[in-house]
Amino acid sequence: MSDKVNKIVLAYSGGLDTSVILKWLKETYKADVVAYIADVGQGEELEEARVKAMKTGACEAVVLDLKEEFTRDFVFPAMRANAIYEGSYLLGTSVARPIIAKGQIEVMRQTGGDAVAHGATGKGNDQVRFEMTCMAMEPGVKIIAPWRDPQWTLNTREKMVAYAKEHGIPVPVTAKKPYSSDRNLLHISFEGGILEDPWNAPPDDMFVLSVSPMQAPDTPTFVEVDFEAGWPVAVDGERLSPAALLAKLNALGGANGVGRVDLVENRFVGMKSRGVYETPGGTILYAAHRAVESLTMDREVMLQRDQLSPKIAQLIYNGFWYSPEMEALTAFVDKSQENVTGTARVRLYKGNCDIVGRRAEKTLYDPQISTFEEDEGAYNQSDATGFIRLNALRLRVRNRAGFFKG
Questions:
Q1: Is the pLDDT at 74 greater than 50, yes or no?
Q2: Which of 39, 126, 183, 210 does the annotation list as catalytic?
Q3: What is the dihedral of CA 187, 188, 191, 193, to 10 degrees?
Q4: Is residue 334 flagged as an active site residue?
């Protein structure tokens, strides 16, 4: 591919950063710019962003509705893998980046573009996630990352605002929030600004998807989630599309203060970063799914899957969704989920998400065997004597050899 760029497809949100970048790309590269707007459930007026892109100088603005695909093909597979990064983060931003980048490559092909661009900074994870996906799908693609471009000088908000005013780009008149946020159908994240001090508590008025647990209703909400082969299919008996199901759980969880997480995480580029997240629907899904698994998954299969879960989470976080190792691990997860069909009943109360019931037609839980009452010969307790002695054999031998230091 030649160095000359004629048409650039920019991942565009309509905010200050990408609006400035759109104009900057046109000026710097003397190229047409297609504004690509991915709808992953951010809850914004995307038609307004499309119109703004055209007024800012885009030769074309393309809006893709990716909500169903995002939930079905990205959110749900991560949940089935029990992928949780560093014990707390349900990967709300991480899991959205590959589908956004995938759509960007598709738009580039459709519009005859010869380069893609994004507004991610050189310090964050998103630059890696976007570009890894783009190169996996289109190995020779030219990627323009203005924040890493030596020609880029607009490295503060003040400089961006001045540039925007100079070029007639509308700048919001509302006061700047002392943090940044990013939203999709799975979650909303907050970072930067006052949150950079990990001792500072998040301000009460920052949260969007959830009420404060202290202000949540004084009576619990009960919700039932149905799964088929590990896939969520219904809430309270009502079958819903993936995006509609997640949206409903977001509303139920948010109303009860469920899903808030405040953590310091390890970014792929090497630094630590403090992030605050709201993931109400995802929190319910992970808990409900695990409850159905507890009835239907074989012990050793569950152990093996759980050992793989942190690796899968790391791959998603680091941008390797379209890697061969992710493909292989996903195949194992798919196999492990074949019998995960059933219903979990969840109690939502003041920030808590508790399992209070689970059922499955093909359950491995046999009350006749596990009962503490008369089991009518279903389990011979004397069998445990030999079982224990055989498992203790290596411990006894170790003691006799003088290795035991207890």
A1: yes
A2: 126
A3: -170
A4: no
pLDDT, residue 33, reads 98
Radius of gyration in angstroms for the set of CA atoms belonging to the chain, rounded to a whole number = 25
Report, as an integer, the average pLDDT of 195-222: 97
SS3 275: strand
Rounded to whole angstroms, how far apart are CA atoms 51 and 61? 8
Question: Does the active-site annotation cover 309?
Answer: no
Catalytic status, residue 180: yes
Q: Which residue has the tokens 């030219």?
A: 142
Residue keyed to tokens 């499955």: 360
Confidence class for position 259, pLDDT limits 50, 70, 90: very high
Q: Which amino acid is at 237?
A: G
Instruction: Please identify which of the residues 19, 80, 94, 97 carries the catalytic annotation.
Output: 97
Average pLDDT across the chain, whole number: 95
First to last CA, the chain: 68
**The domain at 180-297+339-359 falls in which architecture?**
Alpha-Beta Complex (3.90)
Q: CA dihedral in degrees (233, 238, 243, 246; nearest 10)?
A: -80
Q: Where along the chain do the CATH 3.90.1260.10 domains lie?
A: 180-297+339-359
The closest of 40, 41, 44 to 14, measured between CA atoms, is 44
What confidence tens digit (pLDDT) does each residue in 366-402 have?
988 888 888 788 889 999 999 999 999 999 999 999 9
382 in active site:
no
Instruction: Look up the pTM and report it.
Output: 0.94
In angstroms, rounded to a whole number, what is the distance separating the alpha carbons of residues 260 and 251? 14
173 contacts: CB under 8 Å, gap ≥ 6:
none
Is the pLDDT at 179 greater than 60, yes or no?
Answer: yes
Q: What is 7-73+95-166's CATH topology?
A: Rossmann fold (3.40.50)
Largest CA distance in the chain: 85
Q: How far is CA 340 from the centre of its chain?
A: 22
Catalytic residue, from 73, 149, 180, 323: name it: 180
